[in-house]
Amino acid sequence: xxxxxxxxxxxxxxxxxxxxxxxxxxxxxxxxxxxxxxxxxxxxxxxxxxxxxxxxxxxxxxxxxxxxxxxxxxxxxxxxxxxxxxxxxxxxxxxxxxxxxxxxxxxxxxxxxxxxxxxxxxxxxxxxxxxxxxxxxxxxxxxxxxxxxxxxxxxxxxxxxxxxxxx
Length: 167
Hints:
This protein is α/β, with parallel strands linked by helices.
C-alpha cells in the first residue's frame, strides 16, 4: 500500500484562493497517472476543496476529523505555562494542562490512530490519497520512519505538495 500525503493549496479565510486552486490543478497533472482507491481528507474546507480537484469525482472522498490541524494558541504566550507549551511544541514527552491546546503527544496519537485505522481497514488498497495540513507531516514522518518528533528538522510541506509513504 502506498499513501500519498498532500498538503492543501494556498488559502485565505479557510478557502482556496484562485492561486491555491491553480496549485492543486498543477499537482493533479503530476498525480493523474496514479489510480487511487480512496481519498481521505481533513474536514477543513481548504482540504476538501483540494481533494475534490485532485479526485475529479472518480473516487470517494471521506473526511476524517483526526486529520484536522493541530490546535494552537490563538495569541502570543502570556504566561509561563503558555511559553512552556510553545517551547515544547515538538516534544512528545511534554504534557500540557487541560486549559491549553493539545500537546504534541495528543496530536501524534490522533494521527497514529488514523494511520493504524487505514492499515487495518484498507489493507487491500494499493494507493490512498490523504489531503491534510502541514502539521500532519511531522506525525507521518515520525510514524513511518520511527523518528522522534524532537529529531525532525522540517519547515513543513510546501502548499500543494505531496509526500509518498509505503506501508
